[in-house]
Amino acid sequence: MIEIRDVHKRFGAVKVLKGVSFRVDEGEVVCLVGPSGSGKSTVLHCINGLETYESGIIRVLDQHVDSKSKNIDALRRQIGMVFQRFNFFPHRSVLENVMEGPIYVNGESRSKAEKIAKELLERVGLAVAAFRWPAAARGHRPNAGIAAESHSFRRTDISTRSGVSWRGSTGHAQPGTAGNDHDRGYA
Prior knowledge:
- By secondary structure, the protein is an alpha+beta fold.
- It contains five helices and six strands.
- Strand 4 (55-60) and strand 5 (63-64) form a beta hairpin.
- The longest helix is centred in the middle third of the chain and has 14 residues, at 110-123.
- The protein is elongated, with a radius of gyration of 17 Å.
- The two termini are 20 Å apart.
- Residues 140-175 have low confidence and may be disordered.
């Protein structure tokens, strides 16, 4: 569950977030839609503690989000983020790329990380591309993701968008998914 109540944020004199409030319940998918510069990415960065906010409340998985909190790293390990401009390691397979987080962030063994990665790739329809190099997996939803940040759906074709959306809303129960996109028709 993600809960945002009356969150305010400014960059210098510019008020970016002015009393933003919404809730994402378990298994629900929410898309933030708005023009460039309207604060969509800023909200998502605040949810993960990558940005501080002046006032309001942000709670994720029943934990208060504060970038200065001692347990922010533990909370971040439970939040998936796909950034607008992310890249795979080109010298590693798709599977090896997905294994990076469980190994280097969560300290999982290679065998456990491989099991997790295969399950995740299966969940988003990428299992067939697991042993391909990222450049060779282009036709197999290379940038698809369930928890998404900052226009990451834009790099997918319409059929991939539908698949990702469908899996996110009716697939495995998740703590909640929030993303953003400029395309109001898609959202």
